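Convert to structure. Protein one:
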Amino acid sequence: MKKIGILHGKEVSFPEAFVARINAKNVKNIHAEPVLVDELMQGNPTPYAVMIDRISQDVPFYRAYLKNAALNGTAVLNNPFWWSADEKFFNNCLSTKIGVPVPKTVLLPSKEMPPDTSGQSFRNLKYPLDWERMIEYLGGFPLFMKPHAGGGWKNVYKIHNFDEFFNAYNETNTLVMLLQEAIEFDAYFRCYCLGGKFVRIMDYEPRNPHHLRYVADHKVSAELRQQMHNLVLRINHYLGYDFNTVEFAIRDGIPYAIDFCNPAPDADVNSVGEENFEWVVENAANMAIERAQAHKDGGNNLTWGQYVQDSIAGRMSSESVQESAKKVSNPRGSKK
């Protein structure tokens, strides 16, 4: 019997529906259930062939548990090693190398020194930084400031002048922040990507109240939707995420990837709506079943992205980008 587990916290609708959907399919030798974490002894395996991780970003104990599970052969979705290493500034930097349009972005050191550091800890950092030069590079105000890691619209500021910039920066304490060009968009989309092949492009309006953000209908061409579809696959192939969302802001016909480090994206029926919820439950269930059927006991069953694979082979180059583009030229997943 291959067991599929889902590790989650407060959320209810998606985990319950995910487990029920897999079990309702009655696939031979496949069973799904909520993960039960018992005493964790080093090097011991878990009983799960596949685990969907929806909570370890908030619970470090679970992240360590999942790494041990992966070491013993569990296919953890998403890869806990890459998720631990990834952050938004690197994602933007990678995008500049793989042909994905992104807003101009700079990284800011934390306003306050981290615990157990002093001025000597920053002896290699230029002081003072040239704020005017950074603002000029970004194209001037308005700008967005947001944490370089994390999500959920926490500690996000839209700033219109230097006074607002310094007031916001002074509130960020030890957070490392991104300062980013504001894309004044004509349309906005949020896109699920599951298993590196299933894509759902959802019309989205981030300026609406949370419960109305998916109530949108943007009039864009089929060609633009196909371009977003291909960019979603390219991003997730390079990052190696099994379960992720990508957000695009459309300006002058160009889809700018705004946020694409969402390895535990919102999948609650009350926010994404019935139709999107049904899509993610069905495709997440199919993805997990496929991974369980392909699972090799004791093997390395994780997904490793194209960036890591190219780094091992010593070939992060335009050639690898072209190869990635070919892989997504004829996508197998659903576009909407």
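Protein two, convert as well:
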Amino acid sequence: MKRLRKYAGILTLALLLTACGKDSSEPAAAPAQEVTAQEASAQTATEMTQAKLPPVMLYRTKDDGTAALQGYDTVSENVEKPEYTDVLRLPEEIDGLKVTAIDAEGFADADYFGSVDFPERIFEMGDGCFRNSTLSDLTLHETLPMTYGNEAFAGCEKLEHVWLTDSDMTFGNDAFTGCTGMADFHYQEGTLIAGNNFCAGLTGMWNLILDCDATLGKGAFSGCTSLTHIDLSGGTVTLGDDCFTGCTGTETLLFTEAELHFGSGCFAGCSTESLTISDCTGEIGDNCFTDCKEMQYVLIQEGITKIGAGAFAGCDRIETFDIPASVTEIGEGAFADCGGAMLMVPAGSYAAKYAEGHGLEYIEK
């Protein structure tokens, strides 16, 4: 009996030791993790950063309480880039402020539009405001004055057509320099003031029509070798020195019902075959048409008062010059090296006396 109780005690001890060994070998259950408010806030911020904002138009508040646009934000990582659109419609207001200007380089290098619909109250556009952008068509027809800085549209290689109407506009220097795709430029009514080298060197341009008051700076259209048609009519036209120098593709020069003030060398070296100045007043500057080797016929109707020195020098293919009685001043060498050109002059006119005094052939009409 004692031996049985002994075995039972041993068995009980063994079971207890086995149970204790099992509990000590198993890892303790991990305590439940708690997410703090700070960690939750950081997680939410991360999710918001990954979800980008729609395109954002940047602007600057001017001293007068209006806004100057600075183009879309294309730099920030949390803002979507604007998608390309044929027409970019700029806002009339932004954050309750009237839009009246575009800052310098505001849309420079922009690649998300083909043309622009401007607000009514745009008064000023800064230097390089659309430089090197993908602008392909430009139409400005507001009746309010507008000022553009230097190189406003320079380098817009896709720009083909420019139409400006019913406006008073002032452009800085080199406004369209490098717009190699431009084909035609048309300004109807209003006043155009263009700086130096306005459209210089645009070898793709073939058509220029200015039916407005126009003041063009030095070399404004110089070197436009494909410019075949030039029509400056309907207003006061003031051309700076060398304005169209080197336009070797010019076929037609037409001036109608305008007040003309031509600087020195305006059309020197142009290839036009004929020149018609009809119902105009004003003056032809010195060396204005020097070395226009293709010019054969010149018609200057009543109204022009002066032909500058060397104005037609070297135009050796001209057969006749038709000079009106209104001309009361002709500079030295105005018709030098013009071969056997004949001057058609009114009897007793200043031009008749000039021809006789300089040994030029003339016929009184």
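The domain at 86-364 is CATH 3.80.10.10 (Leucine-rich repeat, LRR (right-handed beta-alpha superhelix)). The helical segments are 2-25, 37-50, 350-357.
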